[in-house]
Amino acid sequence: MKSPSAITISILLTMSAMAAAQGTNFCQITAQDALTSCRKKAESSFWNVQGTCANLTDPNARQGCLDLGNSNYQSNLLSCQSQLESRQLVCARIGGGAYNPQINPADFTTNIDNPYSPFKPGTIWLYAGPTSDGYQQNTTEVTFNTKVIDGVTCVEVHDRVYINEALAEDTLDWYAQDKQGNVWYFGEDSEELDNGRVTTLGGSWMAGMNGAKPGIIMLAQPVVGQYYRQEFQLNTAEDVAGIIRLNQTVIVPAGTFGDLVETEEITGLEPGALEHKYYAKGVGNVLTIDEVTGDFFPLVLVTAN
Could you tell me which residues come within 8 angstroms of residue 285 by beta carbon, excluding any fewer than 6 positions away? Predict the structure, then answer.
């Protein structure tokens, strides 16, 4: 079994050890503060509804409005509590250290050749399969474009999701690799669409802006039991991944792949969400399984220009 790289140890372990020594769990503090924020938002929405209902002159309509507002308020409070539990699970995985990776642009390159997550410009991956929402196709293309984020020059990856042949998500992601070979995720510009119209940009974030911080998308030397933040902006980007198995084998339309790294991904934003992903050397992600819905997204084809 290989040891973690020096930068990974520094980021993932040192701050947690310092926090433990100080008796401070910064991760739990963040989770509690997020709970307070969520409850305040729910309360604000509740009082806004109360004021709206007060202007209904029909007593029955007014009471119905108030009852619905109260029901929604209680539901929102339950959602806040569920998010707290999700964040507490994240804290249990990554430890209590404050998350504040120190980024030195000189430590990064756009030559992303990590064996399990290579991003060579011109490469296109196609994933497809039936899902609970319809037949889904996902194309991931490494472009020749770059973008400077938080001082780091990043490779731009264009990701598009089609459901029943209609474009549902259109995203630009930005990655860079450090000197040790860890692949970092520096942000995304994400659009969700319905009937050709953008419905939300809610998942968008960029390292260095509004408290957002980059995370690791793939370790240079994956070790079972390691968990790490893939991204961080409170209430926007809170994905966490962990290495759970090595030397796995899967069969997908693109072929049979062995010696795989299997990860699990959770998030503080979606209670109960859980995905397993499989990564092959020299290829990258070959299969994603949503353990909640049962949906799976196998690699169908990979091409390189």
Answer: 117, 125, 277, 278, 279, 299
